[in-house]
# Entry
Amino acid sequence: MILGLTWLIGFQILGEVIVGVLDLPVPGPVVGMLLLFVFLRLRRPPGSSSILRAGSGLLRHLQLFFVPAGVGVVAYLGVLGDDWLPISVAMLGSWLLGLVVVGWTAVGLERLLGQPRDDQPRAAS
Amino acid sequence: MTGIDAATDTLLEVARSPLGLLGVTLGGYQAGRWLQRRTNDHSLAQPVLVAIVVAGVAITLLDVDYPDYRAATELVAFWLGPATVALAIPLHAQADRLRGFVVPLLVAIVLGAVTSITSAVLLARWLGADRALEETLATKAATTPVAIGLTESLGGIPPLAAVFALAIGIVGAVAGPALLHVLRVHDRRARGLALGAVSHGVGASRMLRENETEGAFAGLSMGLSALAISVVLPILALWLF
# Structure
């Protein structure tokens, strides 16, 4: 477990260093993710390896790690005050438009390029 | 009487300590997981949402300031970084599904970034928001650290940008999968891509529970969208503001 976590933190540090040196506009962990992806493609470690087990363990509880920042939403609710209408409409409206544009563009281009892959998801809950 | 008072004081003191606040956070999360199991994965029973409500109510009742709560729970928030790195793991497992999808993926991400930014700013302006608020809303589709950084460079309100990004992530976790069903987006790659693009890591956390392919593409989409939004925003800002 600790060995796997050490690897993940190592990739995060590498990501932070690259972001700092190249002055990239993305967070260090995102670059670390892309580096780890390349590493996994090249080395293809077995499923029992420490990095895969530690990483999968963390991902099972990904939602937990958002809680400290998320409580900020509760703390800020009162501050929104008079601006709640433009905020909620802009948030939900642009969220919906983004979802439609990304989803339909991806599916449409797939069909256009002749490689559709329509696997049926289970009924929406 | 004094004995009971002393005991109450001690209890409050422990509850307000970093240990107590960590306990409330973990307890709220476990309550959320329990609720998720009990309701057969009802969309509203997202552990992150339940934990936020529990911790939010707790710090209000205990009269703890949010910055103090945030500092006390740094131990939990820290793991977001390594967990983000770990999103490479489902993507690795699903890598052969990238074949024939690279062009649709990149085009969709860029169009999505432009749509998210432009529509948020114009909708807010139409309803009478001021400029600082528009600049803060513009970045909400990006993952939290990127949203904060970009809002800062535009001149918006960085702590509010984090709040917006988190909130829209939770909206995605709750409503995303059902809505994609309504929109008849059935390809699992496209579903993950769409939710990751508008609801970043929180959206990806829901998708990971639904299906590994959807989770993998949501994680990738979160990373690439952060990049696309960072690149596109300064250009769009010339025209929008």
Summary: The CA atoms of residues 56 and 66 of chain B lie 9 Å apart. Residues 212-240 of chain B form the longest helix (29 residues). DSSP finds 13 helices and no strands in chain B.
